[in-house]
Amino acid sequence: MTPDAIGFIMKEMVRRAIEVIRAQRFAFEVHAKEGHSGLLDDIFTSADEAAQAVYVKMIREAFPGYGIVAEEDHLRVEADPKIGMFITVDPLDGTKAFKRRQSHGIGTMIALVRGTEVIAAYVGDVMTREIYGYRPESRKVHRISEYGYGETLKADETTPLAKQNILIRERPENHAPLAKRMIAARDAGGLFKDFETASGSIGVSTARLWKGEVGAVLLKAAFETPWDCAPVYGICERLGFEMLVQNSPGDRWLDLRWDIPDRTRPLGYDQLIIHRSRIPELMEYMRANDPRGRP
Asked: Is the pTM here over 0.85, yes or no?
């Protein structure tokens, strides 16, 4: 199968998933399920199930022998060793936002992974019907509107961080001291103009970074799941963003290789996603705020 054909099929999966989710916006069933804590503190809906069915059917028909890695363990399919690739599926990213009937923060995501490399990924915004992603062998990421209009996304490499906001998904005080200092107000020693908060889909939230609406995204230490991180990491890497993590003492940012797990794993440190063109500015800030003057 050609790279173009793979990209077309993956986009069509996302488009169909968007439509079946939208069809249940006003009438759906909600069920409790086990979360990362081991308790029944998470949920899934009939819309999750409908979108999931779309993905599984099309993957089995179009990509026989490919593995499937999804949130529901019973859907997991091991890849044929001769193929060595798996597809991550998050049929409804932001289920709690969907349950609240939010008009934002609801997504659907898919990624094609070979080893630890994301060779194709697509993130769909259910409410706007926009799709972000790239096909295999392409270095370009496209933003496709509901009317089929596509544009090539390019990261903002000129606006300094002091004039941009940072996007956070937790309360500021829930982050480690290094991150809290960085997102503080400018007159209190912060790096950014201000911070904004987001909830719901991690993919739709991070799309604000891809579009240049914010200058960085800060993620709190939690769990790293392949169906969430594969499409987000893949698109970020294609656009030239870096993943930085805190060191053990919690006083420096270190570069982290984009590594895609095939199973959920704990992540014991805050993550900062920032474009490589802004790294010198970040390092200068760290030197100015480190009493030992370290880079």
From this structure: yes
